[in-house]
Specification:
A hairpin with a 2-residue loop joins strand 4 and strand 5 (about 160-165). The chain has 25 helices and eleven strands. It is an alpha+beta fold and about 750 residues long. The protein is elongated and about 90 Å long. Helix 1 crosses helix 11 (about 310-340), helix 12 (about 370-380) crosses helix 13 (about 385-400) and helix 12 (about 370-380) crosses helix 22.
Length: about 750
């Protein structure tokens, strides 16, 4: 077998990225500067909703009601507090009516109504000291937010005998967007210096530690510019910015860690800089490419869902993954070409080492196998059945709370308790009758008389679970009814009532909306598309891992073990965020359910990141197996070479995700902390214990594939060994080369 480090193997890609490294870095600097300009203000163009399915019945009904009956869909609420006086006091009533007239005169505001104009008991608090002025701000989320920003200062605060606070859906979304932007900036300010310290601890060299951060910054700024362009054509959720930061730093650091580490390893073997870069790109570079593809596919699966909340994460994720990989495969080699051995400069660890050794060869990240990881892998393989059973059972038990998951919709309780819009909504929930916001609207379209509407109203009132029916409110060719369900507005009874209302016969067209209807439609949309998303992820993952390994069993093992690595995350999400455990410590309010789209998002992101680490480990195992044909030795060698690096990368990514999880918005907190847990469980449990145990139990059968697939892999497959025929495939009677015994002895000894 030819030496992968031989100069004649240097390919065109190596020549391309190393021919003019200064020009490449200058071009990258110019492009990054343009990305800063192009991506500026991207958050201001994003929305904070997107949980509804755009083609659902509830979405259609809401749009018609907004157009025909603006007062039926208020998204702006002025909570008027009269202090010790009653809201019916003449001075209070006069001031409230004056505020309502001012509000109705504002451009972009329609459907203004109030307790004082309608005398509706639902708009007056039970203690008689608070009442509501309701209105609808027209336009999409961006337009509505701009109008709210303009008019809010004029209405908020003290007006004569009353104090006014601002709430409603528009206010909740506006405040959520502002808080996310502030929290994201704070997360970046925390994550960047902590990440730099961790990278210095991993690499030792301050110069080497700065390279992954540079790649991450390029990926993040580039993705912001991409998202800014996408907002010109479609809606994008502001939550996607959190994923951009997390994956931009996390994956860029992962990719740069493996490339720089392999480059330093090649330098320690005595090769010159250009040859070392060539070998690095043929080995670690190919692994980075495969890893980026697997992560991108996992995130791209969210494009099958209709909710723009989920699609936004696909836009951001695909962009940041591809940009991180491109920076790692183009800019990083150019920087390494200029640095050469100086990549090891400013070795901070030298200050703490009692005995100074070879800088390049010091520590597992620099090329020498990790003794602890080698010993761990051998221990696991000696007791493979025990480790496999205990680890699997433990992961399944951690995931059991997810069997009790209850799905709901996001509301104002995601915000911190001091947020003005949440305070208003809390007052409405606790102090006003009729569960404001919890009603179900039934739209009746088409020609109909009062008698037809009356009979339809009687049928609705006769349904089980109906507490009250208001209406109809009639227009030219349509009317609508307000139906108040018994019990919780989003409980199972309310969801069942949505189905019953849609089945009520009528001589005109009917459709249903409201919070319960939106939840029903969202759950159905996700259930309808989820098999497609999972199928895309599984099929493409199987294909990519097969192309990397040439095995039939390893891709299946990768999918199963990746799924197991997510159990702790899903169990923790229910136990903590649904059931409210640790809510005081983590500073959030449990609503008793999980937003419907969050588990889908977390599955796609966490599965992709798990495959990221899996590809790095499997590629190194495959490379050694191709060289020696010794299965057990290859597993031990692969873990010894990558175990410490994967763990370091996982810890750094977890730090970034925890910084994101420090957000004051509950969904962002859940996303950050949940994925941090999944990443750590995957690196420290699945990759360290379950993978070597499973590969030991499968033995040499791990690498089996039928002859047609072996031929396919030899023709189209890629691996870190450069596509050479594996030693294990050269005939069962052929022994591994003599050098294998030497290398195996080193691993066994833990050297």
């Amino acid at each position: 077998m030819s030496d992968v480090n031989s100069p004649e193997r240097a390919g065109g890609w190596t020549r391309f990225v190393t021919a003019r490294p200064r020009l490449a870095l200058f071009a990258a600097l110019v492009v990054t500067a343009l990305a800063v300009f192009a991506g500026s203000g991207v958050a201001d163009r994003m929305g904070s909703g997107g949980w509804e399915a755009p083609d659902a019945e509830s979405t259609y009904t809401t749009r018609v009601l907004e157009r025909e009956f603006p007062a039926s869909q208020p998204n702006l609420l002025l909570l008027v507090d009269s202090g010790p006086a009653s809201v019916d006091d003449p001075a209070v009533a006069a001031e409230a009516q004056r505020l309502a007239r001012r509000l109705s005169a504002e451009p972009g505001v329609a459907g203004v109504g109030s307790y004082w104009s309608t005398k509706s008991p639902a708009l007056r608090s039970t203690d008689g000291h608070e009442a509501v002025v309701a209105a609808r701000i027209e336009g999409d989320e961006k337009r509505a937010g701009e109008i709210l920003d303009r008019i809010a200062p004029a209405f908020r605060g003290t007006h004569g005998p009353v104090d006014v606070s601002i709430g409603g859906r528009v206010a909740v979304q506006y405040e959520m967007q502002s808080i996310i932007e502030e929290d994201l900036l704070r997360a970046e300010l925390i994550a960047l210096p902590v990440t730099l310290v961790l990278l210095i601890m991993v690499f030792g060299s301050a110069v080497a530690a700065l390279l992954p951060l540079a790649v991450g910054v390029v990926a993040i700024l580039g993705t912001n510019a991409v998202l800014r362009g996408i907002t010109e054509f479609t809606d994008v959720s502001v939550f996607a910015l959190n994923l951009t930061t997390a994956l931009g730093l996390g994956l860029a650091i992962d990719y740069a860690l493996f490339i720089v580490r392999r480059f330093r390893e090649e330098l320690s073997a005595g090769t010159d800089t250009r040859t070392a870069i060539g070998a690095t790109l043929r080995t670690a570079g190919r692994t980075v490419l495969f890893s980026a593809l697997t992560v991108a596919v996992s995130l791209a699966a969210m494009l099958v869902f209709p909710q723009y909340f989920l699609r936004s994460f696909a836009y951001a994720g695909i962009a940041v993954v591809l940009l991180a990989a491109a920076a790692a495969l183009v800019l990083l080699p150019a920087a390494l070409m200029l640095l050469g051995p100086r990549v090891n400069a400013l070795d901070i660890r030298r200050l703490f080492r009692r005995r100074q050794g070879d800088v390049v060869g010091a520590g597992p990240v620099d090329g020498s196998p990790g003794k602890g990881w080698a010993r761990l892998s051998l221990l696991v393989m000696r007791r493979a059945p025990v480790f496999a059973v205990i680890t699997t059972v433990g992961l399944v038990l951690l995931g059991l709370p997810f069997l009790g998951v209850r799905f709901g919709t996001a509301d104002d309780r995601q915000l911190p308790p001091t947020a003005e819009s949440r305070v208003v909504q809390e007052h409405l929930r606790e102090g006003f009758p009729g569960s404001p916001g919890g009603g179900i609207e039934v739209l009746a379209e088409g020609p109909a008389g009062a008698a037809d509407h009356a009979r339809f109203r009687e049928r609705i009132a006769a349904l089980p679970g109906v507490e009250r029916v208001d209406g109809p409110v009639s227009g030219e060719d349509a009317a609508y009814f307000d139906v108040l369900p018994e019990g919780e507005p989003l409980g199972q009874g309310a969801q069942d009532l949505v189905h019953d209302l849609r089945a009520v016969p009528a001589p005109f067209d009917t459709s249903v909306t409201g919070t319960a209807a939106v939840l029903v439609d969202s759950k159905e949309a996700i259930a309808d598309r989820l098999p497609w998303a999972v199928g895309i992820i599984v099929v493409v993952t199987l294909l990519l891992v097969f192309l990397l390994t040439g095995s039939v069993l390893i891709p299946l093992q990768a999918v199963v073990l990746n799924a197991l690595s997510l159990t702790a995350m899903f169990g923790a999400v229910v136990w903590v965020f649904q059931d409210g455990n640790l809510s005081g410590l983590l500073s959030f309010t449990s609503t008793g359910d999980i937003e419907t789209t969050l588990p889908v998002l977390m599955f796609c992101v966490a599965f992709g990141l798990s495959m990221d680490y899996g590809v790095f480990l499997l590629s190194r195992i495959k490379e050694e197996y191709d060289r020696t044909g010794d299965h057990d030795h290859a597993v031990a060698f692969g873990l010894s070479r990558t175990g410490g690096l994967i763990t370091a990368a996982a810890v750094i990514l977890a730090v970034v995700m925890v910084a994101i999880g420090a957000s004051r918005v509950t969904n962002t907190k859940m996303l950050g902390l949940g994925i941090a847990l999944a990443v750590l469980m995957d690196a420290m449990v699945v990759r360290s214990l379950l993978v070597p145990a499973a590969m030991k139990l499968m033995g040499r059968a791990t690498w089996w594939a039928p002859r047609p697939l072996r031929v396919l892999h030899q023709r189209f497959g890629l691996s870190e060994s450069g596509g050479a025929l594996p030693a294990g495939d050269r005939g069962a009677e052929e022994e591994a080369p003599g050098a294998d015994g030497v290398r195996r002895d080193k691993i066994t000894a833990g050297a």
